[in-house]
Amino acid sequence: MDVLTDNFSLYGEGFLGTVELTVYSSALALALGFVMASFRVAPVGSLRVLGTVWVTVLRNTPLTLLFFAVLLGLPRFGLVLPFQLFAVLALGCYTSAFICEVLRSGINTVPTGQGEAARSLGMTFGQTLSQVVLPQAFRSVIPPVGSTLIALAKNSAIAGAFSVTELLGTYRTLNELGYSIIWTFVWIAVGYLIITLTISALFNVMEKRWGVAR
């Protein structure tokens, strides 16, 4: 317990850093994922191509490489931001590709007759998607979206290698201070467990309330 009690403020700072990264990156991933999923099923060919390219590139790019591209590449174009914002961009964009595919799979579970009926009533593509298709698709994608955001929380550990305050990065300071590396990682693991179990509990509540009965 000495490792935790003697360095509670350090662990707390890292824990809050990971929570912030997870929350902000999740919001960005959900927003971009929704947009790209809409593009993937849009009747406009150029939008479908854009959505496909986005998903294909990001899903097949290692996250560490994406971090390097964002943190080292964007400043060359004059975009200089705090490292935490760069980390949010990298994590959010990367995860959005997976959110997009989860949403698209949910959209595909909605019978095509639903969309045809909406169009026959004079509804536009946007109205059909937002008022008819997505509300039904949402119910079936709650568990996989939750799993994707749990993966995002764990992927946030990479940000520590890029001078971003987060939970895993606390081990370097504690190792330099001579604390047991085993117990250092035990308490780091407990912190990640708290975060992931919280996300899991939240989505379990959402699934019980809105999920598809099986």
TrEMBL record:
It is found in: Cell membrane. PROSITE patterns: ABC_TM1. Residues 15-203 form the ABC transmembrane type-1 domain. Its main location: membrane. Pfam families: BPD_transp_1 (PF00528). The chain crosses the membrane at residues 21-41, 53-72, 79-99, 181-205. The keyword Membrane applies. InterPro entries: AA_ABC_transptr_permease_3TM (IPR010065), ArtM/GltK/GlnP/TcyL/YhdX-like (IPR043429), MetI-like (IPR000515), MetI-like_sf (IPR035906). It is a multi-pass membrane protein. SUPFAM superfamilies: MetI-like. Keywords: Amino-acid transport, Cell membrane, Membrane, Transmembrane, Transmembrane helix, Transport. Belongs to the binding-protein-dependent transport system permease family. HisMQ subfamily. This is Amino acid ABC transporter permease. It comes from Streptomyces cyaneofuscatus.
